[in-house]
Amino acid sequence: MIIGLDVGNGSIGMGIHDNGSVLYNLMPSVYGRFDSTHEVLSVSGKSKQLPDVFTLGSESFVLGYENIRTVHSTPIGAYDRENRFESTQFETLSKLSLLDAATRNGKTGVLEVDLVFGTPAEDYTARTKEIVHQWFSTPVTGAKNGQQVVIMVKRIEITPQPFAVFIDAYVTEDGFVDKEEMETEDILVIDSGSGTLDLSEIHRLELSKQSSIPAGLNDVYQHILELIQQREPKVYATTYDLEHQLRAQDGSSQFQFEYGRVKMDITKFRDQSMRQVWDRIQQGIQQRYPDRSIFKRVLLAGGSGDAFRNYFLKWMPTIEIMPEPQLSVARGLMKYGILKFGDTHDN
């Protein structure tokens, strides 16, 4: 089994290649503790189905915002940019994500996997690689819904997320070259995530230069919340609450926000916040690459890339937006694993 794992600030992307079958999944980058002794009373026939519960160490957890709400837990996320890979929370989130990915095909017990783990460009350092290697140097032992799971990471590769976007465009799910012309091209990859926008240059298949801009959808959500709280100081919503409501209204021209008995139209707040963060994104790219015509192609991926799609297209009409941009990194990591490790030992 080959797993590509993209644990970002806003979402977790995973690509799983197992015995010729391919599975992708995307979920909010958040987990919560699960208390099995806490009884939730509900109206007969109206209770929600219990989500997958993962055990790691002596604690139990659920993944994803909807599941956290179902079990009435507190969201624990990965918004930190400072020393993120040093935090216990991010390590826990990464291991829970691997438990989820390795068992999505219904398997439990002892599982051997090859793992390709993505990092933002700014975190692709010798120290970060050492930390991630330490996380998975011993078996990840836990359970899913009471069934024991032991994940043996046989081989691991740590890869910058923007390079995975390039691989996603270059290679098919079977590991065959899809666009041979990219082998001789100079390419700029823009991976616009929830917390960080990464810029990477690919010259003739080699990653030659990387930089990061601290801007993304998390900044949009934070600014909207500040505007909401200026109007209604007693609104104590989190960015998870706001994101959940906004995503449910994708495609709408008007956006509503509800908190208890408070209901307000936040369309202007959203538009203002999007423009403000877009200015930071655009200025950051312009400062680093005032002439983008030197590149044969510019690739765009990431959750913020999807959200700011129309802004990018208006500014750079020739930009190539990856299919399902939020999953591009995970797909590319999985494909890189197929190239690196082959497909002869799937379990």
| Shape label | globular
Please tally the helical runs, counting DSSP H or I stretches of 4 or more residues. 10
Strand proportion: 25-35%
Question: Sheet bearing the most strands, described?
Answer: 10 strands, mixed
Any idea what the radius of gyration is? 21 Å
Low-pLDDT regions: none
Class computed from helices, strands and strand pairing? alpha+beta
Q: Order of strands across the biggest sheet?
A: 3-2-1-8-10-9-5-6-4-7
Average pLDDT: 90
Helicity range: 25-40%
The CATH level-2 architecture of the domain at 2-164 and 328-341 is identified as: 2-Layer Sandwich
Order of helices and strands: EEEEEEHEHEHEEHEEEHHEEHEHHEH
Could you give the distance between the termini?
A: 6 Å
CATH class of the domain at 2-164 and 328-341: Alpha Beta
The count of β-strands is 17
CATH fold-level label of the domain at 2-164 and 328-341: Nucleotidyltransferase, domain 5
CATH superfamily placement of the domain at 2-164 and 328-341? ATPase, nucleotide binding domain
